[in-house]
Amino acid sequence: MPVPQTILTRKTKSAIFLVFTIDDGGEDAVRDALEEIPGLNNAVSSRAPEAALAGIVSIGSDAWDRLFDGPRPRSLRPFVPYEGAVHTAPATPADLLVHIKSDDMGLCYELGAKITEALGDAVTVVDEVHGFRYFDLRDLIGFVDGTENPTGQAAIEAITVGDDDPDFEGGSYVAIQRYVHDLSAWNALSTEDQEAAIGRTKLDNIEMSDDEKPANSHIALNKVEDENGEEIDVVRDNMPYGDVSGNSADGPGVNGTFYIAYSAGPDVTEEMLRKMFIGDPPGNHDRLLDFTTAVTGAQFFTPTLDFFEDLPPAPGGAPVPEPARATPSDGSLGIGSLH
Question: Per the residue annotation, which of 62, 103, 139, 145 is the catalytic one?
Answer without folding.
Answer: 145
